[in-house]
DNA sequence: CCGATTTTGACAACGGTTTTCATTTTAGCG
DNA sequence: CGCTAAAATGAAAACCGTTGTCAAAATCGG
């Protein structure tokens, strides 16, 4: 049943930024849920297939997930210090990706775009410290 | 000594697109080189640290490397079938990234942009087979 | 309640990467 | 050249996130 899957999604919905599978699993167990790591992975995959969560790879190859507002295509602006995430729509990038692909005769264009930066709060902290 | 490291770089310099460590290792061995996988990894890390090669993660978490023409900032259009790579400059994306970052008060903006598609040759193959 | 189907989860397997550590190679020096 | 210290090398083990296996448990349909 989808009990466990909902539990997994709940975690994501109530999370600020991206979470890893292991991370979610740990929190679920800490919350007292009886769930296995395998099921967390399966739930995450199902959710990602459904477009209910976004998935991306961190620089060290770990998959991280985030519940997104809609199934609409969008990108992320992620604070590299606190992990805070803002969803950003980028018609310009979509078009650019399509264009450069087409210019070189490529078809079935997809693209990954992630923007990293330091958010306002963390910028303040940094300059203070 | 940097003998092995040069061998690794040679492979990359003479390669069209991104290559994986294991891939490079296999070619080196096929070429008759006496080199270990460990050394290939170490060479690749050193090269990447030096900025002599670009490194990125594929969607399935594998690290792939490529010798780049210059240290100039650019992106890649990668054929998801044969791995053929085209370097593309994208002033539009650069500006877009800066803009969305700034809009949300983020500083020290960086971005990762990779475009994937099926190259002309592979598109032909696909429709043929 | 009963059997069929799906879901679950402990555990093993997998695959790429990194570490370990003993051996080999190189550099410095007389 | 011979010697020693330091660096590089590579085979194998360790790591770690992820995926597969398979038997047990939950759920559905009748």
Defining traits:
homodimer, 129 residues, alpha+beta, Arc Repressor Mutant, subunit A, Dna Ligase, domain 1, 2 domains, three-stranded antiparallel sheet, three-stranded mixed sheet, 6 strands, DNA-binding
Count of strand segments of chain A: 6
What's the order of the H and E elements of chain A? Answer: HEHHEEEEHEH
Please give the radius of gyration of chain A in angstroms: 17 Å
Total individual domains of chain A: 2
Shape, principal axes of CA atoms of chain A: flat
| Percent strand of chain A | 25-35%
Strand order of the largest sheet of chain A: 1-3-2
- The end-to-end span of chain A amounts to 49 Å
Low-confidence stretches of chain A: none
CATH fold field value of the largest domain in chain A: Arc Repressor Mutant, subunit A
Q: What is the CATH C level class of the largest domain in chain A, in words?
A: Mainly Alpha
Mean pLDDT of chain A: 84
Tally of separate helices of chain A: 5
| Pair of chains with the largest interface and how many residues each contributes | A-B, 35 and 35 residues
The CATH architecture of the largest domain in chain A can be named as Orthogonal Bundle
The CATH homology group name of the largest domain in chain A: Winged helix-like DNA-binding domain superfamily/Winged helix DNA-binding domain
**Main sheet: strands, sense, barrel of chain A:** 3 strands, antiparallel
Explain the overall architecture.
The structure is a homodimer of 129-residue chains. Chain A has 129 residues and is an alpha+beta fold. Chain A has 2 domains: 1-68, Orthogonal Bundle (Arc Repressor Mutant, subunit A); 72-129, Ferric-uptake regulator, C-terminal dimerisarion domain (Dna Ligase, domain 1). Chain A is built from 5 helices and 6 strands. In chain A, strands 1-3-2 form a 3-stranded antiparallel beta sheet. In chain A, helix 1 crosses helix 2 and helix 2 (21-30) crosses helix 3 (37-50). The A-B interface holds A 57, 59, 61-63, 77, 79-80, 86, 88, 90, 92-93, 96-97, 100-101, 104-120, 123 and B 57, 59, 61-63, 77, 79-80, 86, 88, 90, 92-93, 96-97, 100-101, 104-120, 123. The first copy, chain A, binds a DNA duplex (30 and 30 nucleotides) through helix 3.
């Amino acid at each position: 049943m989808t009990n466990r899957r909902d539990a997994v999604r709940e975690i994501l919905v109530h999370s600020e930024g991206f979470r890893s599978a292991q991370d979610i699993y740990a929190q679920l167990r800490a919350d007292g849920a009886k769930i296995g790591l395998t099921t967390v992975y399966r739930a995450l995959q199902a959710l990602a297939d459904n477009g209910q969560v976004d998935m991306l790879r961190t620089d060290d190859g770990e998959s991280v997930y985030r519940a997104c507002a809609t199934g609409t295509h969008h990108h992320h602006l992620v604070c590299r210090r606190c992990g805070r995430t803002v969803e950003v729509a980028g018609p310009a990038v979509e078009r650019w990706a399509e264009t450069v692909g087409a210019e070189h005769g490529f078809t079935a264009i997809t693209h990954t775009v992630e923007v990293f930066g330091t958010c306002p709060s963390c910028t303040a902290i940094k300059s203070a410290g």
